[in-house]
């Protein structure tokens, strides 16, 4: 990092082609694409590098997304270390139903914790491709987005001085609570939001997976999910009231509910372990339209939040990043078609994934809704997956994100 300027509100020293706000999967993928093309960019991140590399998030990566990373030289470690899943399992009415989606589509899922992917992308961007990144910045602000030369300012954590960086473009990849979405002018964009009316208790257990695939449990007491993250760690979800306090869920209650809701004839017992994460997620989603304003382009959760119902958030972030990174590189070499069509192309896939998540949410939660009609309809949807080859093929394609527009 350059020595602090003596001025309290100093220019950073030179302009950049692109300033990327946020060092998550979307921001780092955009940064890597730019660096591979020799573009001058800067990534700003409010957290420390250690925090970015260790915060647990998603873990299911769709095959098309992995192939997109591979084509850009960003998947070597993932392909060496990731598990592949070809099936999932539904448990309802006391029975187990295996769903072999690879046999229907020829595609599979990769299981690779998001923090591992972020670590890989960060190492490639900063340590291999020589990209600039500044961690721990504070009070990030965006200026002149509708001008031909916007800027981003931030408070330097070492000096406490405000720095200003000019750029051709700003990539807003700083998530649902970031500054970039909040910088959009009121009345110029539309925010469409849906609240599912339920909460999920998100758990990480220091315990090996208790099944060889993702397991979905539909139970009158509420939904439960089992997702492997590594040979030593398993992600679990438990449906709970929105706004519930994680303190209401001690170790004994968590495991008792998981055993009950994931119980089915012939199911192996759950392997218990220490709970290393416990937080309540209020299930909601939103979409920002358009995903661009002036010289600002949003990507990932800054543009659309997809509740983790169908494990789509990380995949949508990568889809955005591929289109945005490629579009920026093309623009800098004289072709603006990628950027001009960016928002529409991203939104087609985002809305497709939102609609599938809404459909799946009713399958997950209808049984526990207390409404006999919703419960019956949810069970009918589940049974149709195993009675109708057409319904099974459609679900498999949507679950894997294949044959999706955009």
Q: Can you give a write-up of this model?
A:
There is one protein chain. The chain has 406 residues and is of the alpha/beta class. 35% of the residues lie in helices and 28% in strands. It has helices at 25-36, 49-54, 63-71, 76-81, 101-105, 114-128, 179-182, 251-261, 313-332, 337-340, 342-365, 372-387, 389-400; strands at residues 9-11, 16-21, 41-44, 60-62, 83-85, 88-92, 95-99, 109-111, 132-134, 138-143, 151-155, 162-172, 190-206, 214-218, 224-228, 234-240, 274-289, 292-293, 296-298, 304-305. Strands 1, 2, 3, 9, 10, 11, 12, 18 and 19 form a nine-stranded mixed beta sheet that branches. Strands 7-6-14-15-16-13-17-20 form an eight-stranded mixed beta sheet. The radius of gyration is 22 Å and the shape is globular. The relative contact order is 0.16.
């Amino acid at each position: 990092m350059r020595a602090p300027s003596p001025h309290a509100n100093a220019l950073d020293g030179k302009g950049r082609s692109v300033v990327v706000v946020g060092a998550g999967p979307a921001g780092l993928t955009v940064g890597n694409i730019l660096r591979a093309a020799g573009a001058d960019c800067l990534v700003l991140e409010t957290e420390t590098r250690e925090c970015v590399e260790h915060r647990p998030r998603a873990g299911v990566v769709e095959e098309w997304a992995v192939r997109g990373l591979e084509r850009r030289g960003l998947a070597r470690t993932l392909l060496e270390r990731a598990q592949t899943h070809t099936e999932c399992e539904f448990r309802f009415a006391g029975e187990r139903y295996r769903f072999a989606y690879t046999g229907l589509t020829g595609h599979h899922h990769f299981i690779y914790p998001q923090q591992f992917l972020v670590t890989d992308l960060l190492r490639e961007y900063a340590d291999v491709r020589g990209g600039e990144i500044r961690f721990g910045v504070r009070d990030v602000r965006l200026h002149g987005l509708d001008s031909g030369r916007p800027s981003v300012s931030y408070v330097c954590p070492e000096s406490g001085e405000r720095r200003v960086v000019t750029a051709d473009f700003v990539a807003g990849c700083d998530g649902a609570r970031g500054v970039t979405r909040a910088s959009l002018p009121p009345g110029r964009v539309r925010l469409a939001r849906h609240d599912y009316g339920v909460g999920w208790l998100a758990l990480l257990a220091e315990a090996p997976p208790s099944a060889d695939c993702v397991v979905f449990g539909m139970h009158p007491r509420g939904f439960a999910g089992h997702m492997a993250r590594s040979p030593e760690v398993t992600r679990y979800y438990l449906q709970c009231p929105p706004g519930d306090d994680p303190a209401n869920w001690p170790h004994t209650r968590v495991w008792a509910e998981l055993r009950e809701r994931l119980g089915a004839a012939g199911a192996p017992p759950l392997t218990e372990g220490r709970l290393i994460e416990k937080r309540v997620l209020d299930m909601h989603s939103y979409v920002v339209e358009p995903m661009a304003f002036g010289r600002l382009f949003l990507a990932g959760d800054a543009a659309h939040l997809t509740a983790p119902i169908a494990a789509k958030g990380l995949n949508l972030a990568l889809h955005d990043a591929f289109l945005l990174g490629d579009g920026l590189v093309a623009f800098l070499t004289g072709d603006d078609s990628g950027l001009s069509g960016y928002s529409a192309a991203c939104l087609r896939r985002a809305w497709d994934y939102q609609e599938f998540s809404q459909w799946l949410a009713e399958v997950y939660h209808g049984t526990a809704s207390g409404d006999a009609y919703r419960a019956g309809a949810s069970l009918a949807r589940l049974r149709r997956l195993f009675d109708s080859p057409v319904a099974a093929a459609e679900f498999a394609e949507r679950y894997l994100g294949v044959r999706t527009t955009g």
